[in-house]
C-alpha cells in the first residue's frame, strides 16, 4: 500500500503526485483515460490554458518552471476586435506582466514525466473508479486490462475533475453540502492555422477577444503559429449553438458577427461540424475531506467556468498550499486534511464567483470605452499608490492573495470607482490630481481596505 493514492492523472493529480514523490512519499495514481503520452492528440477538455502567478509558484516548487516557459507564450494584453474592424488594447498588468498560453496536453505530459522520473510514483491508466468504501478504506475499479479490482488505500486524494467519483462518494456522508449549476452558455473550439510560412496570422503575444455583449469569441496563440479559438455562446434557444443548424447559418453568423475571422479560417464550416459544443459547469461543495483520510482538490472540489483563467491555477495553488501546510507540520498528516479543507474551501467559492462575474466583463464591458477608461484611472492610481490599491484582475492573476480577500477588496474598490466614474466631466479630467485625490479620500474613508 502506498503512502498516497490519487484518483485522476490530469494536471492537478500529476502535480500532486510530483509534490508527494519529491517529498519521498510513495504514490499510486489511477486514471480512467489512456496514457496521454501514447496519444497523438489530447482528447477531452479545453486545449489551451492561461498560466499565471499562482500556477507558476507551484511549477517553481517542483522545479518545472523553466521547462514550461519553453512551451508557453506570454500574453501581455487583451486585444479587442470590434465588428467594424478597429482594435482596442488593454494591458493585463504592469509593464512586463503577462499571462501565458500553454497546451494542456504538453503541460500534463511534463508533469507525468517528472513524477515518473522520481521512481516514487506509479501510474495506472484505464482504471475507472466505480465506488469508494471509506470505512474499509477500499477503492473499487473497472480496469480495461484487469477487470474489476479492489485496492486499499492509506490516504486518498481525489483530483478526478468536475464529475469526480471521489466527491460523489463524499456526497453520501452526513452533512455534505453540494451545489452544481450550469450557465446558459457552452463553448466550441476552432483553430486558426499558421500562414503558408508557418507564421501567425494575428498578433502573437496577446489574448484576442471578440466581445459581443451576450457572447464572445477568444483566441490564444500556440507555439506552432496557430491560434486556438473558443466561442462562448448560448447552448439553446434563438441565437444559440442549437439554432446554427446549417452550413449557411454558420457562415452567415460568422460573417455578420466576426467578419475578420472568416478569411483566417477557410475550413470554418468543416471545423464547426466536427468539433462539439460543450457545457460549462460550476461546482461548490463542503467539506472537501473525510476525516484526515480523504481529500479532494482542483475541479473535484471547485470546478469553475474558464473566464478568469484560474481553473488550473487554482488547482495548482491547492497543491502548493497543501504541501506547504504538510511541511509546516513536519511531514505529519495529523489534522492536515481537515484544517486545509476548512481554510481553503471559502477561496474555492470566491474564485467561482469571480469567474462568473468576469464573463460579463469579457463579453460586454471590454467593448465599452467608459469601462476601459475606468481601468486606465485605476491603473494610474495603483501606480501612484501601490501600497493602497491593486486592481482586482492583478490581485487574482498576479498575486497570491487569497481569492476571498481579492473578491472582497475588489468589491470595495469598485464602489469607489463607481463614484469617480459618475462625474460628468470624468473623460476630460480622468488623469488629473483632483481625481486622484477623490479616490484617495474615498480610500481613507474605507477602513476595510487599510
How is this fold's topology laid out?
Layout: E1 4-7, H1 11-22, E2 27-31, E3 48-51, H2 53-61, H3 65-69, E4 73-75, E5 77-81, E6 87-91, E7 99-103, H4 104-117, E8 121-125, E9 127-133, E10 138-143, E11 147-152, E12 156-158, H5 165-170, E13 177-192, E14 207-211, E15 216-221, E16 227-234, H6 247-257, H7 268-274, E17 278-286, E18 289-290, E19 294-296, H8 299-302, H9 311-328, H10 336-363, H11 369-384, H12 392-397, H13 403-421, H14 426-429, H15 433-444
Parallel strand pairs: 1-2, 1-12, 2-8, 5-14, 12-19
Antiparallel strand pairs: 3-7, 4-7, 5-6, 9-10, 10-11, 13-16, 13-17, 14-15, 15-16, 18-19
Helix pairs in contact: 1-4, 1-9, 2-9, 9-10, 10-13, 13-15
